[in-house]
Amino acid sequence: MVKGTQVALLSFVAVLAAGPVSAQGFEGVVTYQVNGNGGQSMEMAMTVKGGKLRTDMNGGGHQMAMILDVDAGKTTMIMPEQKMYMTHDITQFHPADSTPPKITPLGTTETIAGHTCDDFLAVDSKGEKTQFCNAKGLGFFMMPRGPMGRGPASDVAALNAPSFRQYFKDGFFPLRVSNPDTKKVMMEATKIEPKSIDASTFEVPAGFMEMKMPNMGPRP
Is 11 helix (H, G, I), strand (E, B) or coil? Predict the structure, then answer.
């Protein structure tokens, strides 16, 4: 059974759509501090190699990981404490948005985790605002989507909209995401480590048992 904070962690990854492009050459690890709507805080490490991404999350003393394989069109959720994993087909999900947000450059530049980024404001069709600091040279942002319900970090889900990758043709990798009205920081990079990643990082550990879930069908 998965309880307490682990449920929050599972729900967190559920709201994030799978990016259909690779990180275009960047190989390494980007670590974020993530702050959820309900006060949850967790560390998230994104390990990138080509079209594969492993996202490791640690919050409340519990750990989990999600492996995204863009080419195979699937995500694999790994639960180390239970020594279990669950694979899910992501090709059945519809795109995260249908109306592109209005993106406005703010004209300011910052240095976050040792990397330069530019500030932008995005306003969606409902008038909701998101401010982010976009970095070039790291490729395109990818995050996995799991089979659970919506979770505490739904504010960052829209970052996987195809419109961002179309607007930022030289690379879209937000190092900080915040709400400009409340000044709340939803996620911020704390470390960027370019390095060689072993292929075994994206494999399920030996001895883990697969957990089956019923087909939930496509989301509207």
Answer: helix
Which tokens hold the place of 202? 């994206």
- Residues with Cβ within 8 Å of 144's Cβ and at least 6 positions away in sequence, in order, are 13, 16, 18, 53, 55, 66, 67, 68, 75, 90
| Amino acid, res. 215 | N
CATH number for region 5-203: 2.50.20.10
Residues whose CB falls within 8 Å of the CB of residue 133, separated by 6 or more in sequence, listed in order: 110, 112, 117, 118, 119, 120, 174, 175, 176
Least confident interval from 94-103, 135-144, 164-173, 192-201: 94-103
Question: What's the rounded Cα separation, in Å, for the pair 101 and 65?
Answer: 30
Cα–Cα distance, 124 to 18 (Å, whole number):
19
Tokens (6 digits) for 18: 């799978």
Four-point Cα dihedral 115, 145, 177, 45, nearest 10: -40
Does pLDDT of 170 surpass 60? yes
